[in-house]
């Protein structure tokens, strides 16, 4: 387990408006393999 620091989770949508860069890290606990996905995020309003 990782300690619960503010940087370990998505705190608010304000983070995205301040800096659209994202880099989530996915870890396979069985094999130890890691996948880092880098990119920029955008928000598109939707209506239902």
Considering the chains and any ligands shown, give keywords for the structure.
two-stranded antiparallel ribbon; 21% strand; alpha+beta; 10% helix; 1 helix; 48 residues
Give a verbal description of the structure.
It is a single chain. This protein is an alpha+beta fold. It has one helix and four strands; from the N terminus they run αββββ. It has a two-stranded antiparallel sheet. The chain is elongated, with a radius of gyration of 14 Å.
Question: Which stretches are poorly predicted, pLDDT < 50 over at least 5 residues?
Answer: none
Q: Strand portion, in percent?
A: 15-25%
Let me know the largest β-sheet: 2 strands, antiparallel
Helicity level, as a percent range?
Answer: 10-25%
Total strand segments: 4
Shape call:
elongated
What is the tally of helical segments?
Answer: 1
Straight-line N-to-C gap? 38 Å
Strand order of the largest sheet: 1-4
Our Rg estimate from Cα atoms comes to 14 Å
Oligomer: single chain
Tell me the layout of helices and strands.
Elements (H helix, E strand, L loop, with lengths): L13 H5 L2 E2 L2 E3 L6 E3 L2 E2 L8
Outline of this structure?
The chain is α+β, with helices and mostly antiparallel strands and 48 residues long.
């Amino acid at each position: 387990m990782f300690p619960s620091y503010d940087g370990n989770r998505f705190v608010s949508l304000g983070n995205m408006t301040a800096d659209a860069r994202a880099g989530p890290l996915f870890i396979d606990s069985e094999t130890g393999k890691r996948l880092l996905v880098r990119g920029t995020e955008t928000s598109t309003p939707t209506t239902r």
